Task: structure prediction
Amino acid sequence: MKTSPNYNFFSYYRFFYKTLGFRLLLDIMQSILVSFFDGVGLAMFIPLLQAMGDSNANHSREAMGKLHVFTDFFAYLNIPLNIYTVLIALAVLFIIKGGMKFIQLNSQASLKQGFIKKIRYTLTDELQHLSYTGFLKQDAGRIQNIVTAEVQKLSQALTHYLNSVSGVAMLLTYVAMAFLANWQFAFLVAVGSVLSNLIFGGIVKAVKASSIKISDKGDIFNSHLIEAVHYFKYLKATNQFRGFSKKIREVIEETEFLNRKIGYYQAITASIREPLVMMIVVFVIIVQIRWMGGNLGSIILSLLLFYRALSFLMNFQNSWQNFLQFVGAIHSVKALTDELALWQEPQGDQPFTGFDSSIQIRNLCFSYGGQQVLTDISMDIPKNHTIALVGESGSGKTTLANIITGILPLGKGQILVDGVPLNAYNLDSYRNRIGYISQEPVIFKDNLFNNITFWADQNAENLDKFWEVIAIASLTDFVNSLQDKELTNLGDKGMLISGGQRQRISIARELYKEADILILDEATSALDSETEVFIQKNIEKLQGNYTMIIIAHRLSTIKKADKIYMLEAGQLSYSGTFHELMDLSVRFKRMVSLQQI
Result:
């Protein structure tokens, strides 16, 4: 489980301010203005009404404390103090307050929408710039849970935080009014606040801890759910779904227990809030009458202001407790953002626009987790030549290809593109020139046109280019046979089409991209023999027009490669054409014989 720093009210303010900036300050200022008009409209005019009903002006001023400044203000403006002027003033003030409240709530709606959008933009950008090494250290379920559920909780957290700020502003307003009316009263408010916070302190900590645990359980739940979907066929075919579902149910049970625990704490606070306020009110009245010698007018005024202040204190505590229900989302989002930022991929400054001569690999070494994967690899890949990497599983073929694409960092040695070190280039611009076709074709849940063009505009130029690559990939008849042609939806992971069709679509996508380098990683190994031959013919048509790196177990697919490199235990053992390797390597010859080529 994640450990969380000891955040407080101001720590969370810094978190929100980092995203919202001045807009958060603007909302707080609006809360203060609304509080001011509420305090003036409700609290300040209570003394005015009291003064109107008291024939003894001096007695009235004494009961009002320093708040008599408002009755003096009426006199200063030569406005007669009567029921009509007071009511008109009250109406005007509450109209102003209503207008300010509308502006504040409307602004908050926009604030929350912008907040969630910016958080998701930030996480998406951080994920885009995440290095592949950093990605391997992440949990897919955790990322999904945070970007979806936890970010949504942030919206509710922000709502309750702003309500807490508003409650604090109201509380401070009435405390200030109370101080002007009676300093002893202000002191008692402070005492009441401390006592109530002590009572709620333990509950607040328990709610916060439960919220963080719920976020952790959400990460685990999403991880299991992704696995259940990804391995559905296996789980169903072997009747293992029942056992796996038990794991998911356990997480659900634990999560709902924590939610029930938070509900229990809420029930406690909701039930004792009002009795606690009344107990403090009774205590204040007794103290003022027996020991402070307060007159009846002062007590009534103090009681009203005191009760109003404590009500907002309880509102603040309630909002803060509601906020803490979602505080786990803040910790989760911040932790993921920090981790993604830590693993950002370094980029060189030089843009890559293609190469003219060759890619040179010199004395390349790479280790992972303390295990040596590649040792002293050196080779040349001339432009528009086809090279093949062969060897047993674990010999380092895919790792070498990943280093050539730049998604794995260099250990020792160099990769030079036309004599320029690879890490000097901007890797994003370099990868713009790379096409990658894997054993499992990447098909998005969208139509055929978007899968190949990667959501390009459907204008005449792009449609012409689309049909050109469709023809090269031998897909024309297939597309024309579809009812919706290029707008046909391919289903989740391309489940509505065959494996061979998926693979040809992958090839067409890379051709549409106009890549310089095509990497085929076991691109035909999952296909039947007939489809493999068909795809292989498509690939052979591309030779001489692209720089191709083919990783293959089926050696029949690389007979026409310009050069084949054989890897054994992470080292290059032999290189040459297909027939040269037959003469040079006993192991390669045995592999050819076993595959009956």
User: Anything to note?
Assistant: Residues 303 and 406 are 72 Å apart (CA to CA). The beta strands are 358-368, 371-382, 386-390, 412-417, 420-421, 434-438, 517-521, 547-551, 563-568, 571-576.
